[in-house]
Each structure stands twice: as C-alpha cells, then as structure tokens.
Amino acid sequence: MDCVSPILDVVTRVSDCSAKHAAYINDLQENLESLRNEMQELNNVYLDVKSRVEVEEQRQMRRTNEVDGWLRSVLAMEAQVDQILQKGDQEIQKKCFGTCCPRNCWSSYKLGKKASKKLGSVTELRNKGRFVVVADRLPQAPVEERPMNKTVGLDLMYAEICRCIQDDQLGIIGLYGMGGAGKTTLMTKLNNEFIRANKDFEIAIWVVVSRPASVEKVQEVIRNKLKILDDTWRNRSEDEKAVEIFNLLKAKSFVMLLDDVWERLDLQRVGVPSPTAQNKSKVILTTRSLDVCRCMEAQKCIKVECLTEEEAINLFNEKVGETTLNSHPDIPQLAEIAAKECKGLPLALVTIGRAMAAKNTPQEWERAIQVLKIYPSKLSGMGDHVFPILKFSYDNLPNDTIKSCFLYLAIFPEDREILSESLVLLWIGEGFFDECDNIYDAFNQGRDIIEHLKTACLFESYIYDRVKMHDVIRDMALWLATTYSGNQNKIFVEEKDNVEVHQVSKWKEVQRMYMLFSSMVESGMPPSFPNLVTLIVRGGGMATFSSGFFHFMPIIKVLDLSRTGITKLPIGIGKLVTLEYLNLSFTGLTELSTELKTLKKIRCLLLEGMSHLKMISNEVISNLSVMRIFVLEFNELILVTENARKSPREEEEPKYSSEDNGALNLRKDNKALLEELEGLEHINWVNVTVEGALSFQKILSSQKLKNVMRVLSLANLEGMTLLRLPRMKHLRNLEIFSCGELQEIKVDQERQGRQGFVADYFHIPNSNFCCLCRVVIFQLPKLLDLTWLIYIPSLEKLYVEDCESMEEVIGDAGEVPENLGIFSRLKFLYLFDLPNLRSISRRALPFPSLTILMVRNCQNLKKLPLDSNSARNGLKEIVGELNWWEGLQWEDETIRLILTPYHITWL
C-alpha cells in the first residue's frame, strides 16, 4: 500500500491538471462570450466616466491623474480584448468537421487560457471605474490673459514701461493721465504680451481698485488668485489676512497690477510685500492723478499722453471701418476732420468712430462734425458714455471751490491758454477765495488749485506759466455747467464775428459770457442781462461799445475788457456798481475818467500793458476804498524771448502836465498816484511802474507801500548813482531800466552776518526779498555789477541787457557761506549787449536748476560757470553766437564735449 499511495496522488494531480487544461479548450466559446459581455460592461462604464470628465473640463476643471490613467487603461484593454476575441472566433471556426474537437488543441488551449485571465482583468478594471471625483479645479495660470482690442499708438509708451519693469531699482511704477487716454489698455497690453512672456514673474495679480480704495476688496481678489482655502480665511481679521497674504507672496516673484486707483492704497495693510531688487517683484498702477502716483511712492511716474494726430486718425479710421470710408470719396477727408476734433483722446476717438461707422454720405458727416464742434454732448456716445467717464475726475475733486475753478476755465474758447496768474486773479474777482484771511493766502490757494488740477490731468501746462484744457475735457466741463446742471444757456462762448438772432434771445439767461468785441458791437446787443455775473470780451477792431450797453447788468461782478483795442472808457461803465473786478489791460485807453469813482465795490483793478495811458482823473483811485489789488504797468520794456528780442524803449517821453484837470500824471513823476494808493485801507497787492527819484522816495518813506509791493518797475531815477533797495517781503518781480547815472545797487540787510543769510536762504517768513524770483536790468550804462543778487535766494529768472560798463555779474561774494549756493534756483539767465562782461561769478557755481542760458554780444565773456553735472541737472539750451561759443575757454575738454550738444546758434 505504501507504494500505491504516491502513484495515486500523481495520477490525481495529472487528472486535475488535464481537466483544467481541457476546460480551457472545451469552454473556449463560453469564455469568449463572457469576455465580450464583460468588455461591453467596461465600455459602458468608460463612456459614463468619459462623459463626466468632459463636462468637468468644460467647467475649466482638470481630470485627475487616476481617472486619466484608468481611461487610458480601458482603451488599451479594449485593444487587447478585441485581439483575443478575433482570434477566438477564428479558432472556433477551425474545429473538426462534425465534431467539437479543435484542429489544434495547443492553440485553443493557449487562447482559452488567455481569455480566462483577461476576463478577470476586465472585471477588475471595471470595478476600479467607480470614481467619486473625476476632475479637480485647474490651477490658475501665473498670468491670465485679459480681453483686449487691437491697440494703436501705444508702442513707444509700451516699450518705455517694459524698460522700467526690467529695471531692478524701480519697484513701483505709476501710469497717470486723463480719463480715456488709454492707461488701462496699456496695462492690459503689458499683462498680455510682456508679463506673460517674462519668466521672471511667478504670478501676476490684477486688481481693479476704484474708489473708495477698499483693503478688504483687494485682499479678496488676491486671496482668490492665491487659492487660499475658505477654512483659513473665513472669520479672520484684516490684519490676519494681511499676514497670510504676505507669507505667501514673500516667497514669490510677483507683479501686482492695480487699475483705476483714485487715492492711496496702503499695500502694507493689504499684505503686499514691498517690491525690491531682491524679490524682483513689481507694483504697476494706473490713475488719473500724478498725486496718487506720489502717494503710492512710485519710483517712476509715466504720463500716458494722448495720441499724435497721425495715430489718432488711424485709430478713428479703424473704428469707422473700410466700408464706410470707401462709400464716398469725400468721407476720408471728413473723417480726418472729425478725428482732429478729438485731440488725440482714444476714448473719444473710439466712441465717435463707432458712431460714424453707419454714416455713408458726406452730408451726414458734415452735420455730425458741426454737432461735434458746437454741441458735442448731442453726438451719439458723447453725452451718455464719454462725458460720464470723464466726469469721474471732476467728481473726485476734493471740494466745491476746486470744482468751480475747474469749470471756470471752460469760459475761454477751445485751445486758448491763459496765464496762471491771470486765471487766479479772475477766481479772486469771482469771490472763490473770500474765506481767505488776505490776498496772498487767496493767491497761493489759487496756485495750489492749478497744480492740483494739473496733477489730476484736468488742466494742461503750457509755455510761460500758462494753462489750458484739452478740448474734450473742456466739452465735458461745458456739459457739466450747462446741460447736466439743467441750464443750457448758463455759459455762452462765442468767437464768431457775427452773432445770430436766435442766440441773442438766450442771453437773458446767461451767467458767464465770453465774446469777441466785434460781434458785440455789430449784433445790436439786447438791453438787459439780468443774470450776467461775468463778461469777458476779446478782440480789437472796434473802438467803442454801443450806447447803453452797460446800463442793464444789475449783478455783474467781473468785467474783463483787456486786449479789446478800446481808446475810451465805455459809456455807462459807471453804472456797474456791483463790479468787483475790472481788467482794462492792453487797451488803447489814454485816461481813466471820473466815471470810475462810482465803482466802490472794485477789489481788483488791472491796468497792465497800458503804453498809451497818460492820466487817471483825480481821486478815482482814492474812491475805490475796498480795492485790494492794483496793477499799473506801461509795458514799454519788452524783453527778449527764445525767438525774438525786445523792441527798444521809446526815447521820447509823453508830454503831459500834472496840472491839467487836476489829474494824476503817470509819467516822469507819479508820486501822487502812490499817495492815493497808500491811503487805501485794504490795499495789499500793488504792481506799479515808478518813474523819477521823487516817486521812489515816496516808496522808501512808506512802510505800507513797501509791504504791499509785488511787482516794481523803476525807471528814470535822475541823478541817482546809488540805489538802495528797501526790504519788500512780497516783492516777486523787479525791473530797473533807463537810469543813466546809476552805478551801484545795494539791498538793506536788517539781519547782518551769517544768521541773516540763513534766514533768507531758508525762506523764513518776513525775511528780506524771500519772494523775489525775477529781476530785469536794462539800459544802465554805468552799472558795474549785480553782486547784490547774492541776497536773493529765490531768484529764478535774470535778464541783463545793455549795461556797457558791467564787467561781472557777481563780484565779491565772500560774505555768503559756502554751503548756501548762489543762484541755486536760477532757471533762466539772459545776458545781452554787455561788451565788457568778463565773468558771471568769481566763485564757481553749480547752477543746479539752470535750464536756459542765452548770451548775445558778450564777446569778452570767455568762461562759463558750468561743469559736467550741469547737463544732468536739467540744462536744455545754451544760446549764443557761433564765434563766441568757439572762443570759450574750458578748464576741462570733457565739459566742452558734454555741453556742445546743448549749444544753439543765434539765427
């Protein structure tokens, strides 16, 4: 029996194995069918999973790696099963005819075995397809592309900003400009093109800040970008959120794009790390105000200017479209006219261009252009889109006074610039600053407002301290003051020579009016202006107003007749008893008659450029008892500009006797005028031309006159060899001319020694000449030098001409401490017809502020007190004859090479 058991065990094992192998062969067809069915079930699951994945991917989700691997495995499994099934079907068809036995048992065995195992694999794979989650949220791209139309005219500005972004020293960059100038478009272009391509930034975050600047709102945008989970964010304080943001951003190189910033946003409170050269991060912001850039501590402030004329036409034509432009031969030229009306403002160009896209006839274009020029708010898109966007800048102005000042400039015609000082005096005349304690505080407030409106991009700077409005901003201002306020006729501006009848009927509603003198005279003006507060008239040609013109202006406050060419005071002007501001500058008046005595509310009387004025009727000035500002300048001294030289002063004095009619003589000796001014209780601003030594002595003897003097012109000081200038704390402009005997000028110094200089140079209030910034010296043939100028620390402009004895501008300045720079604020230096001038200063001067130096007929001036730093400090031009320039001597040839590009030869 012991021998039999092992044999039986072997037989059993062989029998089981044979049975199993036989099953692979016998059950082949059944196994194949099971495999086919299981594979079908797997495919059904596959289609379900795939459908779920596609839905999630459409929702910007990403399939999980597990699901993706499973889907790939199903496809691979399907291919393998198909191969087994195909071979299995072939094997079954090869069975012996009339039997169940396969022809090739070994082949059927292998196939059956493979089908049996694959069936298990398919079942296992199907079971794995029961996914709860098939996709996750996509991680956000480091820089998200933002929608943007094709840009026109931004390439140069774009390139400049890209260079700034690449500068490691510039962490915060501010883009500022008027509304609609393209700041957001430019930053979008930076985001989409430059920053996305720049691999230095790990993440870019775009935030629309708007107003008010909300730390919470900005934090929420950053949180969403950084994928901070709700659990770590909800119910946390502002400070805790800032810490969370800070710790995430400090490890990254980021760029923060802050759009539409109206006020300072405290980035530290938000949690944004300061961008530095070390972390290579940036903050770029857009705003309408330069002040906001400064408050945000931007290291670089870039103004986004309006487009050039060519760029503007291209953008406009793109919005109009080729179809419309080609619909008539005249339309391209009309399109150019319409585009120019927008003055390069992209917002207006795009809006009007789209509105014109459907206009296919020249007549439609001509009517639209007329509307754009006269009533722009009525053109499609302007009143309901462009102006409301620009109005945000107006709404953001801090108070009603600044808003009134802004709207006021719209009285003047488009493209008309105005001197900043003249504008402020008009504001004072209107009573905008009546709350100020004195006229100087009021004037300074006005200048501050101008600077604020400039930084807000609502005013534009112009040459020679003038300002103007962009045409579209002006249109918006007129819209605000008239249509938007509900009074269409509140402001009337007319520059045409003839006024149409239908316009005259509206004048009874007008509060502020600007007109040409000729149109007023010729139009037969209505007799009544019951609401008129301000009347500004310009233009010459006619010499008088119509009779009775001024009889019915019961509430007028401001009358500006400057530059009208009138030769006599208009009849009836004495009836304007409510008048507070009267400007007769640059007219042909020869006298001021007694009719002005009745204007007892006059606070500001301006008589600038009165080259024909000979007398003022007696007691006219003394009767203007509340007058604060008085300006009388003859304008016989016309100074050199960049393009033209002055005309010489008239040699022959006007012949007029002070005894005639008891009038004040304004020539030779105007001491009586000064006495009347001295008697005015409220006077605190005087600009006057003083002729004769007796008149000047009156100033010396009157502390009041010295305190109120703002602009002083001294002429014909007969017999005076030494001029000692008294302390005049408000004096800004000083002119001295035609004094044939004058050899020396000195200033009174109440403080002696070093302390006195420190007081002046640091502009301690009430120090000597702390405000004097402009000095003109003309036709003083015996004057030797201007060393007294070392006491004038605020000097910005110096004009010296026709002083044949002068050998040096600054002589011995040993009293001035070395650390207090002479001429440290001088911007313009003009030296003309000084044949003996050899030196500007004995001491080397840095001239840190000098921008323009002009020299003519000074052939003995061989050295300039300039060095290699002068160009870096802001120098723009050195104008002089070529032979003079070539004859200059230089301590260092390098200085000559550096300064040569700045030299311009006199024409």
Describe this structure in words.
By secondary structure, the protein is α/β, with parallel strands linked by helices. 37% of the residues lie in helices and 15% in strands. The strands form seven sheets. Strands 11-12-13-14-15-17-19-21-22-24-26-27-29-31-32-33 form a 16-stranded parallel β-sheet, sandwiched between helices. A five-stranded parallel β-sheet has the order 4-5-6-3-7, sandwiched between helices. It has a three-stranded antiparallel β-sheet with strand order 8-10-9. Helix 3 (65-93) runs antiparallel to helix 4 and helix 5 (155-166) crosses helix 6. The longest helix has 31 residues, at 28-58. Mean pLDDT is 83; it is low at 10-19, 637-661 and 751-766.
Number of strands: 33
Beta-strand portion reads 15-25%
**Strand order in space, largest sheet:** 11-12-13-14-15-17-19-21-22-24-26-27-29-31-32-33
Q: Choose one word for the global shape.
A: elongated
Mean pLDDT across all residues, rounded?
83
Counting DSSP H or I runs of 4 or more residues, the number of helices is 29
The radius of gyration over CA amounts to 43 Å
Structural class: alpha/beta
Q: Into which percent range does the helicity of residues fall?
A: 25-40%
Low-pLDDT residue spans = 10-19, 637-661, 751-766
The largest sheet is:
16 strands, parallel
Distance between the termini: 139 Å
